């Protein structure tokens, strides 16, 4: 999903310090060249900036470098480099930083999807190297995504293409010093973009792909003296979870990032919450479904939406708040900063759903409605993850967060304060 951007403030002392690090003579110039798309087709040597330490297969607090009860993972959107360069990441609020994203080709090779990918990866490697501001932050990346699952069915369809995808992902991981990667196939159970390739045996092939990635990662870890990690982007809709071989996946995955958001949008029949914590649909329902189907709760990371969804042409309805009403058009996906600005704007009335534990906004004069995000929602979602005995929390995505307000709320709640 490519975001609607509304800008963010920069010039902090942290960013200035990081710029000095990135300008140091030790930075390898050969990694700064850009290319629109590149195929990774051969095993490459281990990168020079591989971090020490490893992640356990099942567990939670072992992932937290900041002494938090729950590890905090943030997704960095590679296409947002110009507005939100890697140096602006608040590494002190994170335990894991994952990069979005790369795309599998039909034959299992992996393609860069943006001209900024190579400089981004070079920056992240430098920033998380020993002595850098993110030296204690573990890193990984996604293969796939909503806009990058077109050929996943093809890439997973044969032993040869599965072997190639795993091998190329590990090459990329080693080259840039990552500690693992994520399979982000949206979705082997259907419901993704209309142009995505599909097969009747996609569910079986998804498990086979995970098994192949796990096998090669374990071999690479043994060779490198490391324990590399493998995660999976998990849908929140029970109809997309239940057809999966969840028990089979659980044997090979370190964790699942449960995408407990995008529960409303342009195709919704009425205005509804984007990321409700409780109710149906909700994060609670998604976690319960994954656990019932066989994934240990200590392997589940709960997603937080750092963005909202705005709708136009909404009548007030019986409660004068626009919730659950028809809409004429979908306005936009708006970032956390825009949500904060609308919350502060007197033209918008702020509402809190005590059942779902999420905020929403309504502007009666303009007939506009927003499923919003704010720190109170973030704290509620993180509190749920702790109460549900989940592994940790993550956000989609970091550039949506105005002045790190939401990430600070998540980190505080994950530490047991403010949650």
TrEMBL record:
What name is this protein filed under? Glycoside hydrolase family 18 protein
**Alphabetical list of Pfam families matching this protein:** Glyco_hydro_18
- Keywords on this record? Hydrolase
Carries keyword Calcium? no
Cite the GH18 domain residue spans from the record. Answer: 70-417
Question: What InterPro entries has UniProt attached to this entry?
Answer: Chitinase_II/V-like_cat, Chitinase_insertion_sf, GH, Glyco_hydro18_cat, Glycosyl_Hydrlase_18
Q: Which GO terms describe its molecular function?
A: hydrolase activity
Q: Which organism is it from?
A: Saliphagus infecundisoli
SMART domains, per the entry:
Glyco_18 (SM00636)
Q: What lineage is on file?
A: Archaea, Methanobacteriati, Methanobacteriota, Stenosarchaea group, Halobacteria
């Amino acid at each position: 999903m490519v975001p609607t951007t509304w800008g963010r403030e920069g010039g902090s002392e942290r960013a200035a310090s990081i710029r000095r690090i990135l300008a140091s003579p030790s930075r390898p110039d050969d990694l700064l060249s850009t290319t629109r798309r590149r195929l990774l087709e051969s095993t490459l040597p281990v990168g020079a900036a591989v971090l020490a330490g490893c992640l356990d297969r099942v567990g939670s607090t072992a992932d937290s470098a900041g002494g938090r009860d729950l590890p905090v993972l943030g997704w960095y959107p590679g296409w947002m480099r110009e507005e939100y360069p890697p140096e602006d990441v608040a590494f002190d609020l994170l335990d894991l930083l994952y990069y979005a994203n790369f795309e599998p080709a039909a034959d299992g090779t992996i393609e860069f999807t943006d001209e900024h990918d190579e400089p981004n990866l070079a920056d992240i490697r430098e920033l998380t190297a020993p002595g850098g501001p993110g030296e204690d932050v573990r890193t990984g990346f996604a293969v796939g995504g909503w806009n990058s699952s077109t050929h996943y069915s093809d890439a997973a369809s044969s032993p040869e293409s599965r072997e190639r995808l795993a091998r190329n992902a590990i090459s990329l991981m080693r080259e840039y010093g990552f500690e693992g990667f994520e399979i982000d196939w949206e979705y082997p159970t259907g419901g993704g973009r209309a142009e995505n390739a599909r097969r009747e045996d996609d569910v079986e092939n998804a498990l086979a792909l995970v098994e192949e990635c796990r096998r090669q990662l374990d071999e690479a870890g043994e060779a490198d003296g490391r324990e590399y990690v493998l995660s999976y982007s998990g849908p929140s809709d029970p109809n997309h979870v239940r057809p999966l071989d969840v028990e089979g996946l659980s044997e090979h995955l370190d964790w699942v990032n449960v995408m407990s958001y995008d529960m409303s949008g342009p195709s919704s029949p009425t205005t509804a919450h984007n990321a409700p914590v409780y109710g149906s649909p909700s994060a609670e329902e998604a976690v319960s479904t994954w656990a019932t189907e066989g994934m240990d709760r200590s392997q589940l990371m709960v997603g937080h939406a750092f963005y909202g969804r705005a709708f136009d042409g909404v009548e007030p309805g019986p409660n004068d708040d626009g919730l659950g009403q028809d809409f004429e058009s979908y306005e936009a996906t708006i970032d956390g900063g825009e949500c904060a600005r609308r919350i502060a704007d007197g033209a918008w009335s702020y509402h809190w759903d005590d059942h779902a534990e999420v905020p929403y906004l309504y502007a009666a004069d303009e007939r506009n409605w927003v499923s919003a995000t704010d720190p109170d929602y973030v704290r509620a979602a993180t509190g749920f993850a702790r109460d549900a005995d989940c592994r940790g929390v993550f956000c989609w995505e970091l550039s949506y967060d105005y002045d790190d307000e939401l990430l600070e709320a998540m980190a505080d709640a994950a530490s047991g304060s403010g949650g």
